[in-house]
Inverse folding.
């Protein structure tokens, strides 16, 4: 090595590649208020759309009179289903194989449903016009309870499906039934349950909530009637999928549609779906020939665009007397609302709920999920989790606790006794998954040690004694969770959305001076892709991350991909990035060998250069190679240095973690205080530890909200009771607990860089940790199961029902 | 979230404001900090055609503590209440309560006058003013009049103020003894699940006077004479506190909402009152 060459370590650090807590490149613009969101887009002559929404949860629409609205100066048009019907756009397909009304067609099925779309010259006029549209409704009986929806004589909700008993996912057995999805071995599981030494049974409810991103959903649609091109800027988590769907339903050729996701202010699953607002804005722009903007307000967001969860999970878990789990049975009643608009891979109508055996080696299991229509908003999206994984994790982590109670056993010990052992990976689960890698015992022991588990249990025992002696009114809860996720959807052979395989992509161009641009099929909504994907590339191709531009979200320039949700970006697009980088490196190797006048096999890669084997002073840096690629005629090699990779993952990845929450509970007021929250995550190879920590903080805070207060609640006649942020709980800095983060590293064996994805782990893992802490505080007083959210009055109710108020 | 269109007025004197209110009658509303009124307009629950902004009326601002009497102008913000040293010394109860209202951003804008004139049972200041036995000065076309805070509230959003009157100031005597404001809420920025304002004077180990007011437990604040009387003459022992709590519970009338059912609110009201009494007693 000549004197001018810095040592390997130094060069490697300068790349800011894998493992570097590189500062987020996005933050410069976000912290200065220079982001460019959909609502920042202003175009000459742009019109504004706003919805007339249904005040009723179930009603027949007798008539719509828009005369007064149309007479208001500034109002351009008022669209109703009747206007969309000739275009066949009054209904639209959902991602789940159902269809959804774009505008009320004869009746409304949930409060807040879109009834008419007003288009006006500004949004103030549009809002005034909405008030002037006269709609005559005839109220119908409302069903908000999915169990009542399946009663024999229950009102028919979806009249459009009457007589059609074959649904998108098999037969429907009732007029308000959507599908039954079964996994595992029913007979064998029932046999195990029948002969088990111990069976614990419980109904676990994961209530309806909402991703509630700070930026609501919206779009600007612009039809250029001269060149026939439609451009839509929107809050889309999957821009290419939106383009294909838009083409299929509008009949506009796909090359004439350009979808752009600008900066997105949080998605968390809320921005995966296709909403009536997008269709109406597009139609309005096609009709008027000018751009049309539609942006929902907070109440519309909470009431009408994609909710999450709402799963009633009935469980039975069988074990030997000494705590070896022998079987798991689960029947879920899934409330999908008025239309089945879940965003799941097509073959998985209940997402990956069949990961519900969790981190445990359960030999026999059976899962059935019944999807049901009710008079609630459609959705059922993966709110910062891979499809229904948080429901599954909550279910199994509650069932473990219930079993521990049944066995009179410590819940930490019960878990350790049943974990899939390290040497069992790759592990074939009873419900059909192949877990790629894991080392649960190591993580678990580390977590218990970190929080001082045994001392906590001693303190808790003392606290219970003091409480019983009247010395304190506070209880101590220790909430345990060991979760296993399944992310990175997914292998094209079994994962698709509307027939589109769930691969992802990356395209790289190296510029002559040795910097680069990479484009991906994903789209960041705050995850920091521009930071982390550049790091993956930096390590692969030896170009500093700071010299790599990352671009996503414009379908005219980005390669086709399925977007960002379900923690899939790193497992899928991250893999594509590494693979494209490797293609670049392969070509670079040939160029280097040519320049160094040796055979390809005589050079080897070293951080940022190819070096002649055994002659360290002879090398070509990536910068030199890049320049050569553009300025030299190299025999047998095309000029330029570019690569593209479409990555079809061979398997999902299975991140896991151990979370522990220590909570103080005031028995008299139902208030709580998080004394400690410890989060150990194993997401395989760690690309940027700082971003991982940020993701864990954010996800755990969402989990805290969900477990401790956040919900979309309806009254019996289908009114949304939590339509504003006064009642829908979003924690502020004040409520947010302090988190201690930790990690182990068990790389994915099939991912090119061993990364598994982390964005959603903290939501999946923290919800059961918080909820288990509440349950654990009352375990000594006989509590088995109390439904979330654990807000003040519900915790108070637990204490009251247990007779703790004297 | 977009209000109806309205006319905006910005008078620079109380008389000019009163004239506008008189001219437009129930189509007009005073605008103070706007943190109760504007959300109602955006939700289109309030249809205001003439908004009379009070920001330019200098005489409505200010805090005066003189000779044991405190006078606060209606347009004084909650932030100013918290940061006024003389007020904090004379009536620390105000500071303790103000810090439990909303969040700093809201408190920079929200005013004392708006808070007490609003008539929303969720507002904290009305109960506090009843506890302090404050007097409100109202200015109308026929001049000024005074109404005791304890007589001001009739029902949710209905008060003794006429549409064309302006609330110009709030006055009360600085209390002696111990004080406490205890509030349970779901999160920062939330109105009370239950809140209690308590003032206690003690002499020779016995309670000589007490004043108790509860917030968000009925459609008006509840100043509870019977609860206060249960404490007077006692040594503020558990039995006396229990009697005060029992008296308070029969005076309130909470309604079920997202914060919880009636039974829960009633229970919590008892807990916050008992805690407030204990804290006030320890400071007396
Ligand atoms: C997120 C949030 C949380 C909040 N939390 C709390 C809380 O915990 N506790 C609490 O007490 N409040 C809370 N508030 C309300 C806040 O304190 C308001 O500022 C206050 O209620 C009203 O004061 P304002 O100056 O904003 O009045 P405005 O909103 O301007 O006016 C309120 C009403 O009073 C009338 N009015 C105002 N001034 C006068 C006057 N001088 N004479 C006659 N009528 C007048 C107006 O016409 C209007 O009807 C909260 C508000 C928000 C937005």
């Amino acid at each position: 090595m000549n004197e001018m060459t810095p040592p390997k370590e130094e060069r490697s650090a300068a790349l800011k590649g894998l493992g570097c807590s590189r500062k987020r490149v996005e933050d410069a613009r976000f912290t200065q208020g220079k982001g460019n969101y959909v609502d920042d887009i202003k175009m000459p002559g742009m019109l504004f759309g706003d919805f007339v929404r249904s005040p009723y949860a179930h009603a027949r629409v007798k008539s719509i009179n828009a005369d007064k609205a149309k007479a208001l100066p500034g109002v351009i048009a008022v669209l109703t289903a009747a206007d969309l019907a000739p275009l066949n756009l009054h209904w639209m397909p959902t991602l789940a194989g159902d269809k959804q009304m774009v505008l009320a067609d004869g009746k409304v099925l949930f409060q807040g449903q879109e009834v008419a779309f007003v288009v006006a010259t500004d949004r103030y006029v549009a809002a005034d016009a909405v008030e002037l549209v006269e709609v005559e409704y005839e109220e119908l009986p409302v069903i908000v309870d999915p169990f009542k929806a399946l009663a024999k004589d229950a009102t028919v909700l979806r009249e459009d499906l009457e007589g059609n008993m074959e649904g998108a996912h098999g037969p429907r057995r009732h007029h308000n039934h959507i599908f039954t999805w079964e996994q595992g071995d029913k007979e064998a599981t029932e046999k195990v349950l029948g002969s088990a030494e111990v069976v614990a049974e419980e109904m676990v409810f994961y209530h309806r909530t909402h991703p509630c991103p700070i930026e609501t959903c919206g779009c600007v649609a612009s039809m250029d009637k001269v060149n026939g091109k439609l451009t839509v800027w929107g809050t889309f988590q999957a821009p290419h999928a939106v383009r294909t769907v838009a083409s299929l339903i509008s009949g506009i050729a796909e090359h004439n549609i350009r979808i752009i996701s600008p900066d997105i202010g949080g998605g968390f699953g809320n921005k995966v779906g296709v909403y009536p607002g997008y269709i109406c804005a597009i139609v309005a722009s096609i009709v008027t020939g000018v751009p049309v903007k539609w942006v929902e307000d907070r109440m519309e967001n909470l009431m009408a665009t994609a909710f999450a969860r709402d799963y009633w999970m009935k469980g039975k878990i069988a074990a030997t007397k000494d705590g070896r789990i022998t079987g798991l049975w689960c029947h879920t009643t899934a409330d999908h609302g008025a239309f089945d608009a879940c965003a799941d891979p097509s073959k998985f109508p209940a997402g990956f709920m069949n990961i519900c055996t969790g981190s445990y080696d359960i030999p026999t299991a059976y899962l059935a999920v019944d999807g049901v229509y009710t008079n609630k908003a459609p959705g059922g999206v993966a709110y910062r989790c891979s499809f229904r994984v948080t429901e599954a994790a909550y279910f199994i982590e509650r069932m473990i606790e219930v079993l521990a109670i049944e066995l009179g056993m410590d819940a930490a010990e019960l878990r350790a006794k049943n974990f899939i052992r390290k040497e069992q990976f790759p592990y074939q689960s009873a419900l059909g998954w192949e877990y790629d890698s894991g080392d649960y015992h190591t993580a678990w022991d580390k977590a218990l040690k970190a929080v001082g588990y045994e001392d906590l249990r001693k303190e808790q025992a003392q606290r219970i004694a003091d409480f019983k002696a009247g010395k304190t009114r506070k209880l101590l809860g220790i909430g345990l969770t060991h979760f296993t996720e399944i992310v990175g959807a997914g292998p094209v052979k079994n994962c698709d959305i509307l027939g589109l395989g769930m691969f992802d992509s990356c395209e790289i161009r190296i510029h002559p001076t040795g910097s680069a641009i990479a484009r991906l099929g994903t789209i960041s909504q705050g995850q920091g892709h521009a930071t982390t994907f550049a790091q993956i590339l930096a390590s692969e191709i030896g170009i500093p991350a700071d010299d790599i531009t990352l671009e996503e979200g414009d379908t005219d320039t980005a390669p086709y991909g399925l977007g960002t949700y379900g923690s899939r970006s790193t497992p899928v697009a991250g893999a594509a990035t590494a693979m494209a980088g490797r293609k670049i490196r392969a070509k670079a190797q040939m160029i280097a060998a040519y320049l160094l006048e040796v055979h390809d096999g005589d050079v080897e890669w070293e951080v940022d250069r190819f070096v002649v084997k055994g002659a360290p002073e002879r090398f070509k840096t990536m910068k030199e190679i890049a320049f050569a690629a553009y300025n030299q005629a190299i025999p047998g090699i095309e000029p330029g240095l570019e690569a593209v990779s479409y990555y079809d993952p061979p398997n999902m990845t299975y991140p896991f973690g151990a979370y522990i929450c220590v909570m103080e509970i005031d028995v008299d007021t139902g208030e709580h205080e998080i004394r400690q929250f410890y989060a150990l995550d194993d997401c395989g190879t760690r690309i940027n530890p700082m971003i991982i920590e940020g993701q864990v903080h954010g996800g755990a805070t969402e989990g805290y909200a969900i477990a401790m207060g956040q919900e979309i609640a309806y009254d019996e006649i289908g009114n949304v009771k939590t339509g504003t942020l006064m009642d829908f709980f979003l924690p502020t800095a004040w409520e947010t607990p302090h988190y201690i983060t930790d990690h182990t590293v068990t790389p994915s064996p099939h991912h090119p860089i061993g990364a598994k994805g982390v964005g959603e782990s903290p939501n999946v893992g923290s919800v059961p940790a918080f909820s288990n802490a509440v349950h654990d505080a009352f375990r000594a007083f006989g509590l088995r199961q109390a439904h979330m959210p654990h807000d003040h009055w519900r915790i108070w109710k637990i204490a009251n029902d247990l007779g703790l108020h004297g | 979230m977009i209000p109806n269109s309205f006319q905006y007025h910005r008078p620079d004197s109380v008389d000019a404001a009163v004239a506008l209110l008189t001219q437009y009658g129930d189509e007009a509303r005073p605008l103070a900090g706007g943190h109760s009124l504007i959300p109602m307009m955006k939700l289109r629950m309030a249809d205001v055609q003439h908004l009379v902004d009070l920001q330019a009326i200098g005489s409505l601002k200010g805090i005066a503590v003189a000779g044991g009497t405190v006078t606060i102008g209606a347009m004084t913000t909650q932030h100013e209440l918290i940061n006024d040293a003389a007020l904090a010394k004379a009536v620390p109860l105000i500071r303790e309560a103000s810090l439990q209202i909303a969040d700093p951003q809201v408190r920079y804008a929200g005013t004392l006058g708006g808070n007490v004139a609003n008539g929303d049972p969720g507002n904290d200041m009305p109960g506090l003013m009843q506890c302090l036995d404050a007097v409100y000065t109202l200015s109308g076309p026929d001049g000024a009049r005074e109404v005791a805070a304890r007589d001001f509230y009739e029902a949710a959003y209905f008060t003794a103020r006429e549409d064309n009157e302006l609330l110009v100031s709030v006055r009360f005597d600085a209390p002696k003894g111990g004080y406490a404001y205890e509030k349970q809420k779901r999160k920062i920025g939330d109105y009370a699940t239950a809140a209690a304002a308590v003032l206690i004077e003690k002499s020779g180990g016995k309670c000589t006077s007490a004043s108790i007011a509860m917030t968000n437990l009925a459609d008006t604040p509840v100043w509870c004479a019977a609860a206060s009387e249960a404490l007077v003459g006692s040594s503020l022992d558990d039995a006396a506190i229990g009697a005060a709590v029992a008296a308070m519970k029969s005076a309130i009338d909470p309604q079920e909402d997202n914060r919880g059912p009636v039974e829960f609110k009633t229970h919590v009201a008892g807990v916050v009152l008992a805690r407030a009494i204990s804290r006030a007693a320890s400071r007396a």
Observations:
- Residues 130 and 150 of chain B are 5 Å apart (CA to CA).
- The mean pLDDT of chain B is 97.
